[in-house]
Write a structure and sequence with these properties.
371 residues; ten-stranded antiparallel beta sheet; 17 strands; alpha+beta
Length: 371
């Protein structure tokens, strides 16, 4: 009898453990959480949200739903995880609705990253304590999301400029230290937060099979971030869907190091004697720097997406040649009466390339590109 009781106890323990760490969330349960979220957000009992998308096509062989997306009739959407080893709410908006027929390219890659992490965490033996706590107390979790401090600014750069910075970062010797997989999710989030505190925006890239998709992080509300994905929006998203897995993102961290301020011993009355001269010199320097900034002296790379670039040279361009990293020439073009070289790498495999533009003077200009 004792032996049978032990077997039954062990079976119950295993079943309890399995349900705690591997149970998937049903669409019905997710809809109930979505309703709680909108009721709390609007401060009253609202109409039932409508289920619109599940992300199944983003998973391996489309075998399961990684999350559920619900729209609300009064406006807004919320993304609920279909796996209780991930955080319950992955993204939301209280003003915009989610159109599954018009998901942008960058938004798709962010959702694909979510799906990949949620799929992988099902087979991960680690116990995600923060996620489990959130699932066990959904009202408190929702309240913490909605009442978190919010700060945001308009992006200081374009997505094209962000892509140039990301491509440069990815090509550096210490690029690995700029990728999320190098850190734990908590460490990665902390680095993002420090950067936002410093300069209020951050170029972030979603690393996918087809290349890097640029995102601009320009706001934060608790653990959710204002992301400029395919256009201007007022949505909030988690950087990563779990507290365990982190690969899939790259960011541009840091500013040029500040020069140490030199301290000089002041000569009596020197300031008064040189004030006019210093003021005039600063004025002339400012004017010269403005005029100088209007002159193209080094190649300026403009990214148009999908492997299309325009390179502006300080002189008319005669020819352009593009090489793969192994030295093979993969693209060549000649130009006439223009200083703008248009390049089309859309038919080439994803990766880094080295381009050499030749001016009419014969001077070569080296450029690094990413397809």
């Amino acid at each position: 009898m004792t032996k049978i009781f032990r077997h039954i106890s062990l079976l119950l323990l295993l079943l309890t453990s399995f349900s705690l760490t591997a149970e998937t969330v049903s669409q019905k349960e997710a809809k109930h959480i979505a309703a709680q979220f909108f009721n709390a957000a609007y401060g009253q009992v609202m109409a039932q949200p409508a289920y619109v998308y599940n992300g199944k096509r983003l998973t391996t062989d489309r075998l399961f739903s990684p999350f559920y997306v619900f729209n609300h009739p009064a406006g807004g959407f919320v993304v609920i995880s279909a796996e209780n080893k991930a955080y319950p709410i992955l993204g939301y908006s209280l003003t915009e609705t989610f159109n599954p027929e018009q998901i942008g390219e960058v938004t798709t890659e962010l959702l694909r990253l979510y799906a990949k992490h949620i799929e992988n965490i099902r087979y991960d033996s680690r116990v995600p304590e923060q996620a489990i706590d959130a699932w066990q107390n959904i009202p408190h979790y929702i309240d913490s999301i909605l009442n978190a401090k919010y700060s945001a600014t308009d992006p200081a750069i374009t997505r094209e400029e962000a892509m140039v910075e990301l491509a440069y970062t990815a090509g550096t010797d210490d690029a690995e230290a700029s990728t999320s997989g190098f850190y734990s999710p908590d460490q990665w989030t902390e680095m993002i937060n420090l950067e936002l505190d410093d300069k209020q925006y951050l170029p972030l890239g979603i690393v996918a099979d087809k290349g890097i998709y640029p995102v601009i992080v320009h706001g934060r509300k608790g653990d959710y971030y204002r992301l400029q994905l395919d256009g201007v929006n007022r949505q909030f998203w988690r950087l990563l869907p779990t507290e365990v897995l982190s690969p899939g993102e790259i960011a541009v961290f840091g500013n040029p190091p500040a020069l140490a301020e030199e301290i000089f011993e002041e000569t009596p009355f020197e300031f008064y004697n040189s004030y006019i001269a210093l003021t005039r010199a600063e004025y002339e320097a400012d004017r010269a720097s403005i005029e100088d900034a209007l002159i193209v002296k080094t190649p300026v790379v403009q990214w148009h997406g999908l492997g299309h670039y325009t390179v502006l040279l300080p002189e008319d361009v005669a020819a352009m040649r593009v090489y793969s990293l192994d030295g093979a020439q993969v693209y060549a073009e000649k130009y006439r009466d223009t200083s703008a070289a248009h390049i089309d790498l859309s038919q080439l495999p994803s990766g880094f390339y080295f381009a050499v533009a030749f001016g009419l003077s014969g001077k070569p200009y080296g450029i690094k590109l990413f397809r």
